[in-house]
Amino acid sequence: MDNRAIGVFDSGLGGLTVVKELHKILPNENIVYLGDTGRVPYGSRSRETIIKYAMQDINFLKKKDIKMIVAACGTVSSTLPREISENLGLPYADVILPSAQEACALTAHGRIGVVGTSASMRSNAYGKTIRNIRGDVRVFGNACPLLVHLVENGLVQPDNQITRLTVEMYLKPLMEENIDTLILGCTHYPIIYDIFNQILDYNVTLIDPGKCTARYVKKILTANGMLAERTKTGVTQYNVTDQVSGFDQTASLFLGEPVSGSLNQVELV
Ligand code: DGL
Which partner from 22, 41, 136, 249 sits 20 to 30 angstroms from 257, CA to CA? Predict the structure, then answer.
């Protein structure tokens, strides 16, 4: 048993879609969240910059009393080299493997689509991971650079015409490939899950990285005997690198509940 917190980070608020699911399936765990809101988005930046930012995020979390690190960001997950993530001195989870495993298990005809940021698509991390699990599937990717901006700006209502048209544009080439499963390869996308579903006419299985990653974290903590022993609900501490005003309102959209827990503006070094 281990009562230390789970450290979760993202370039912005998208990682809260993982926290939302952790709250549901591991309600007694403490969580320390870091959202680098001062520098979001990461997905349009170079590999070197993304690795540098990710290391600053990880070093911030490592100074907290945490037992595990979760990269709740598709961009970091697909860019951070294994030699780094496997040598952090703490268990590490990212969103790629859990989403890839789920897609491989659920695909009906072996035609999997992936949407994510430009950096995630450039890395081909999803494609490589999927083909390591199942050599018989085809993977089709498309970068969606505008979506993080739309989501961070709150244009997430299912009837929002700007977001709908943008998603339609990004899905068109994937629909032409007759995908049967779609990985939402960026943790900002589950918040517009309904828009994806409507445009795909509910015919494609959607893989939500928040849900898969939370289940994966639970599996790792359970396997290592590291679940918290607490009987009361855990506390979540939120840290952001930009101003805190407006956080509660946007964050509650991602969390699907009002924000409860402390909130700090922090600097990364
Ligand atoms: N949530 C991040 C991801 O999953 C956001 C992308 C970004 O910062 O560009 O990729």
Answer: 41
Span 26-37, pLDDT tens digits: 999 999 999 999
Q: How far apart are CA 148 and CA 85, in angstroms?
A: 24
Pocket lining for ligand 1, CB < 6 angstroms: 10-12, 14, 40-43, 73-75, 117, 120, 148, 186-188
- Whether the model clears a pTM of 0.85, i.e. scores above it, the answer is yes
| Residue 94 backbone dihedrals phi, psi, to 5 degrees | -125, -175
102 membership: H or E segment, kind and range = helix 96-106
Q: Angle, nearest 10°, between helix axes 96-106 and 125-133?
A: 50
Residue 11 near residue 53 (C-beta atoms within 8 A): yes
Domains of the chain are: 5-94+211-265 (3.40.50.1860), 96-209 (3.40.50.1860)
